[in-house]
Amino acid sequence: MSTAAVPRWSLRRLLLGVLLTLTLALWGGSAFIVYREAQRESQELFDQSLAETAQLLLSLAENEAREHGTALAIDLRIPERPDHHRYLLFQIRDARQRLLYKNGGAPSTAFAVDAPEGYSWARVNGHRSRLYTSWNADRTVQIQVAEPGSHRDEISTRFFYKASGLGVVLAMLAGLAIWLCIDRVFRVLQVSADEVGARTPNDLADVPLEGAPSEVFPLLLAINRLFGRVRQTMEYEQRFTGDAAHELRTPLAAIKTNLQVMQRARSVAERDEFIAGLNASVDRASRLVDQLLTLAHLDPQDNHGVVLEQADLAALLTEEQAHWQSLAAGHQLQVELAHAPCRIERESLRMLLRNLVDNAARYTPVPGRIVVSCGQAGGHSYLRVADSGPGIPAAMRERVLERFFRLPGAKAPGSGLGLSIVSRIAAMHGATLSLDPGMNGVGLAVTVSFPASA
């Protein structure tokens, strides 16, 4: 009992995993780049805002100091906020580093005594802060503005969480869209698989191609072509079996009749007559079986691997001359051989030649003429067997190539398979088969024209 192979991997899951991974990787990389760029831009904005605030406060403090002087330090104590560490802190000092102004939450000690002018980092109230230091034009008043780094980090974190949340939603939507697209593609294959799986062994109708995407269409088309070849093979086998049974019935019935009559023979001469008839029936059955086996062997479905070799028809006919001369014994046999190179399969071509000569000998009354010839014409090599027999009417020349077909009123023994075998062998060689009038318009000439040889 055969067991179905267990699938080891799923193309659907593989595509879904690969596409989702690529999507998330691209989104993650893009989000990181955007976040870093946004963080850099926001730092520049924060620094610019810090500098503008410092310059504004410095202008106000300078104007105030010009009006009231700086002999005494002025300490403007603004009520402290419980979360002052989250906001700007500033100190304004004179040239002797005396504290003039500060806001609530700012310490009395300098943020950073040796801080360079411009931007720097310092620890204020135990927190890492961005510091901006500036002097007025005559360097009598200095301002230092400190912004806690946690303020910037908090804003950046909020932006990161919002961007991440939006990215997760977009990734989920992208994953859903990818899954729907993949499912749509594979649903076509699943429908086709279910449709084929539900069929009976004899149901070989084409798989529907409607709605199939262009990538899947060649696969379904190849399956339909395979079904077509299987249908042809089954039809061929059914016809072959039916025709063989029908044709074998006649010689077998004759054998049985001769045996029954022979049992009631009243004399030796009468028995010998029935034995001769029995031998003829056995010979006919044997010949029919041989031709049936030959025809089965030449099934076009099994001839894809036939190997053709370069040869000369004249040499092959010379090798076979003794055999087909015995087939044509009693007839006027004429042989005309010329150089005829082509690609052939020797055994099948010998069979073709024997069938042609045998047909010509059986249908041509003794001492009729039979001409076997080969040569070249029009760039093609040919093999021709012509006779002076009754010939075949033009209207029947296509039908005699069918299996088991015999001309009405034909008296010569036969099964109607000879020319069918010849036709199959010619097709196997890629050659053309033509049936024409024989010598001087009398009889039949069968010509096999082979493709031009290199």
Taken from the alpha-carbon principal axes, the silhouette is rod-shaped
Mean pLDDT: 78
Domains (count): 3
Order of helices and strands: HEEEEEHHHEHEEHEEHEE
**How many helices does DSSP assign?**
7
Strand order of the largest sheet: 2-1-5-4-3
Cα-atom Rg, whole angstroms?
52 Å
Oligomeric state as shown:
single chain
The CATH homologous superfamily of the largest domain corresponds to Histidine kinase-like ATPase, C-terminal domain
Which structural class should the secondary elements be placed in? alpha+beta
CATH second-level architecture of the largest domain? 2-Layer Sandwich
Q: How many angstroms separate the termini?
A: 51 Å
Give a short account of the largest sheet: 5 strands, antiparallel
Protein described:
With about 450 residues, the chain is α+β, with helices and mostly antiparallel strands. The protein has 3 domains: about 25-160, Beta-Lactamase; about 215-295, Helix Hairpins (Orthogonal Bundle), CATH 1.10.287.130; about 305-450, Heat Shock Protein 90. Helices cover about 50% and strands about 15% of the residues. The longest helix has about 60 residues, at about 10-70. The radius of gyration is 52 Å and the shape is rod-shaped. The mean pLDDT is about 80.
Task: Please describe the topology of this protein.
Blueprint: H1 11-68, E1 89-94, E2 99-102, E3 118-124, E4 127-135, E5 141-148, H2 149-197, H3 217-263, H4 268-297, E6 309-312, H5 313-327, E7 332-337, E8 341-344, H6 346-363, E9 369-377, E10 380-387, H7 418-428, E11 432-437, E12 444-449
Parallel strand pairs: 7-9
Antiparallel strand pairs: 1-2, 1-5, 3-4, 4-5, 6-8, 9-10, 10-12, 11-12
Helix pairs in contact: 1-2, 3-4, 5-6, 6-7
